[in-house]
Design a protein that fits this description.
Elements: E1 12-16, H1 45-57, E2 62-66, H2 76-83, E3 91-96, H3 105-111, E4 115-119, H4 125-132, H5 137-149, E5 153-160, H6 169-175, E6 181-187, H7 204-214, E7 219-220, E8 230-233, E9 240-244, E10 257-260, E11 265-267, E12 276-277, H8 278-283, H9 288-300, H10 306-311, H11 321-324
Parallel strand pairs: 1-2, 1-10, 2-3, 3-4, 4-5, 5-6, 6-9
Antiparallel strand pairs: 7-8, 8-9, 10-11, 11-12
Amino acid sequence: MLLDKYGRQLTYLRLSVTDRCNFRCYYCMPQEGMDFAARQELLSFEELYQLSALFCALGVTKIRITGGEPFVRAGIIPFLRRLSQLPGLEEITVTSNGTLTQKHINALQEIGIRKINISLDSLDRERFHRITRRDTFDAVYACIFQLLEAGFDVKLNCVVAEGKNIQDLVPFVELTKNHRLAVRFLEEMPFNGSDSFALPQWSHREILQHLQDHYPALEKLQSEPSSTSVNYRVPGYVGSFGIIPSFSRTFCGTCNRIRLGATGELRTCLYGPPATNLRDLLRLGFSTEQLTQEILEAVSMRAKDGFAAEASQAQSIHTSMSVLGG
């Protein structure tokens, strides 16, 4: 099993299949000048499968497919189909921006994938355009309801920032009145691909207070022990919303995640440096036993929390989220 020195078991792999994205969200990457990985630098689908199989043999039961935008990579559906057959893997989920998801709905259903997270930071077309630098709001919004109609468990991920989308918080909660959606409000993080980051003005506390001012009778929901969000429901609403303290990092003590980037970098914490590069080891001919030992050693050195992991960084932590895989 993947146990760190604090006795925490890692059972959830966030697997990035590409660093490319058809959006340019301000909090993730600059509008121009991104240095994307060359194709040969990416883990091949065969390498992704081999490493996923190894993680499942070590106790991983859930894999979330991330990017970049996963559906920009050709061949993703055959890979997901093969991945779904791995022994010990109980669940595959996907995080997408929703622009390319609609055409894959039938295939995802056939594979058995039922949970999709859609990144959506505004319900206003103009604000959406300013945030993503793309004019595709209508397609994303339509995709959400197509997924719901097809029976998917849909979560909406909204990064909250002053001057960007505060006026969208209440409308997002109102979406949960008649739709079985789970909205997740996230604190802004420093992974924007630039050399600057201002501390977020809207922490989980400010977000919650803002919503409590509008909904005084909020019902707090019970969450799974490893959940990163604190979840709520407005009485009478069919959906729910949650708040993820992604910068405050109050959930670190129960985090069960490990991350594999599209170019093979293994991270035991989003805020920490890569522990090793499994792509390089694979291509050097490391055996399954040697790879296993590398992974176990990386997990054994896992930091206590995101602040300790950040302190161990020798360089700036403003790498683009598209590179880190989320």
